[in-house]
Amino acid sequence: METIGGDLRHMQRTPLSDSHVAALRAVGAIVRYRAGTFLARPGKPADRFTYVLSGEIEVVNPYTDERHLPSTLGPAQFMGEISFLNGGNWSMPLRAAVDTEVIEVPRDTMLTLMSQIPEMSDIVISVLSARRRRQLDDQDGALVLIGEEADRDIRRIAEFASRNRIPYSAISLDSDDAAAVASSCGITLSGPSVVFGREVVPDPTPQSIARLLGMNHDIAEEKVFDVLIVGCGPAGVAAGVYAGAEGLCALVIEDIAIGGQAGTSSRIENYMGFPTGISGADLVWRGEVQAMKFGTRFAMPCRVNQLEQLDDGSFCATLDTGSRVRGRALVVATGVQYRRLPIAQLEALEGAGIYYAATEIEARYCRGTEAIVIGGGNSAGQAAMFLSRSASRVRLLVRGTSLAASMSSYLSSRLEADPAITIQYQAEVPELHGDDHLESVTIRNATTGATETVATRAVFVMVGAAPNTAWLSGLVALDDKGFVVTGHDAHAASPFATSHPGIFAVGDVRAGSVKRVASSVGEGSVVISKVWEYLNSGER
């Protein structure tokens, strides 16, 4: 299956050419570092591109200060992490192993250079993506989650990090590794904790982790973007790619993680160009990197609570942080979310046995237990296939009498042939059992009324599609289900234009759209031409 980048251990190294180095010299500065000098520390801005002329740079273990990897960066290699593209922060420390001379280029200048020299851009992005893949594969970063297995809040941080492809390591609370981390930080562990670069994070949340990593930028209110794109699923990221490529100043805002609902899919096999399949999160992460290459900015996790149009015609989005961002046009790409089933205790057990995504994080919670997946669509089917690798058994509960109308044929055939998966039709869950965590569920046959109680620690809810449109504050017309009305039904010329000039809608949130990744990417790509027309017309 495809992933976010190449395997650094087996990649053929392609150095920057002499002309590339000459371009770096023309816009950069020669800097010399004495042996032992740190060039980067976790949480500090990745605000410059560093090319090694002579000497040696080593990755350092943030908890021991020892050399972390056997390989180092030498002449003709460069320092950098993927966070450099979005103006984020370093996740690992780097140090001059010997006296070292480098060329340093400020981030904005380097991004301009990369846009002018695509061959250089290809080399840099390929290496940065491969480095991030290595960190993820090795669970290697300055972010350490201690006691994830015992704390729901830390599990939420693990989910946030995993879905956003942030490297971290998870350590059991009573392990020797946890004691070693605590010793290096000079603390005594009293319970589950989050540590970043030898500092314990007080009251850890996804938002506080994002701040440490430089993901949720402070944007001046006087800054006016050409277009605000709300939602970071396939449609929103595609819009970000094309907005940046067309020279628009764009900001993409996301409240949870890249990928949207597609990001919760462990495997997508019917998206053109990926014959061996790719996870939803990896697919959209690649798109995010493309968009950042073109200068599009991303801010997360930030929820838009309110939208208004100002006297000058621009749109102002108020975020849950209290800050406000402005744009001359707006693209709604907030997609849908799985509906909460009307079951007692459901909300209380979310994150403690009730899940809405099936990724590596959730798969760990299924080991040695039966996993139950509720739903009959492709996402539910892929979740069942994925979870069957770790759970003792997977039971797929389908409300209807067949999968033919809701699931791709290739997928339903695999489910039916897999001995580790049982499909129950006309099934529903009326009751959940457990206090602090899920212990069992009651399954009822909707036709006969017969019930059975099944012991399980993991239920995956993947049914329904509730549009995320409450934040639009009545500015655009919605249909009776809450989806955004566009095109002819909104008395608009463009199929993506809403009833309010300057606001466009794409992807699953749009009424009448085809709920597939490929169609969402297509809509996000095409809508930017309509945004461009609006910005250059007399409508504003």
Number of helices: 12
Low-confidence stretches: none
**Shape annotation:** globular
Largest sheet: 7 strands, mixed
Mean pLDDT figure: 93
Secondary structure category? alpha/beta
Oligomer: single chain
Overall helicity: 25-40%
- Taking all Cα atoms into account, the compactness measure Rg is 24 Å
Report the portion of residues in β strands.
Answer: 15-25%
Distance between the termini: 46 Å
Number of strands: 28
What key phrases describe this protein's structure?
28 strands, single chain, globular, 540 residues, 7-stranded mixed sheet, 5-stranded parallel sheet, alpha/beta, 26% helix, 12 helices
Describe the structure.
The protein has 540 residues and is α/β, with parallel strands linked by helices. The protein contains twelve helices and 28 strands. It has helices at residues 18-27, 107-116, 118-137, 152-163, 176-185, 206-212, 234-245, 280-293, 360-364, 378-387, 409-417, 517-535; strands at residues 29-33, 38-40, 48-54, 57-59, 78-79, 94-96, 100-106, 143-146, 169-171, 193-196, 199-200, 224-230, 250-253, 297-299, 304-309, 315-319, 324-332, 336-337, 354-355, 370-374, 393-398, 421-425, 427-433, 440-445, 451-455, 458-461, 466-467, 503-505. Strands 12, 13, 14, 15, 16, 17 and 28 form a seven-stranded mixed beta sheet that branches. A five-stranded parallel beta sheet has the order 19-26-20-21-22. A hairpin with a 4-residue loop joins strand 16 and strand 17. Helix 7 (234-245) runs parallel beside helix 8 and helix 7 (234-245) crosses helix 12. The longest helix has 20 residues, at 118-137. It is globular. The model has no long low-confidence stretch (mean pLDDT 93).
